[in-house]
Write a structure and sequence with these properties.
transmembrane, membrane, cell membrane
Length: 115
C-alpha cells in the first residue's frame, strides 16, 4: 500500500488552508477554499483505489473472482465535486454582491453587518 496519495491530499489541504489564512481578498479566499476542498477528491480516490482492480461492470470478461473497484467511493467523489461547484458558485455570487454594495473585497475593510 502506498501513502503517496494521502500525502498529496494533506499537502493540497494545507496549501488551501494557508492561502485561506493569508488571503486579503474574498475572491482569493473562495479559490483557496476550493483548493482545500479538492484535497477530499484525492483522499476519496486514494481510499477507493485497488491495485489491479477493474471497473465494476460485470459481463462476460469479468469473472466472479476478478477484483473490482468500490463504486460507492467513486459516487462520493462525484457528489463531492458537485457540492464543491455549488458552494464555490454561491460564495462567488456573495462576493460579487458584496463588491457591488460595499465596493470592497478585503475582509479587513468591511464594516459591521447592517440589517
Amino acid at each position: 500500500m502506498t501513502y503517496y496519495a494521502y500525502f498529496v491530499a494533506g499537502a493540497v489541504m494545507l496549501l488551501g488552508i494557508a492561502g485561506l489564512a493569508t488571503s486579503r481578498n474574498l475572491v482569493h479566499a473562495v479559490v483557496c477554499l476550493s483548493v482545500a476542498q479538492s484535497a477530499t477528491y484525492i483522499l476519496l480516490i486514494a481510499v477507493g483505489y485497488q491495485s489491479g482492480a477493474v471497473a465494476p461492470i460485470f459481463g462476460a470478461q469479468t469473472g466472479r473472482d476478478t477484483p473490482v473497484v468500490d463504486p460507492v467511493v467513486q459516487a462520493l467523489a462525484l457528489t463531492d465535486i458537485v457540492v464543491s461547484a455549488a458552494v464555490t458558485s454561491m460564495l462567488l455570487a456573495l462576493v460579487v454582491q458584496m463588491a457591488k454594495r460595499r465596493r470592497v473585497v478585503d475582509p479587513d475593510h468591511l464594516g459591521p453587518l447592517e440589517g
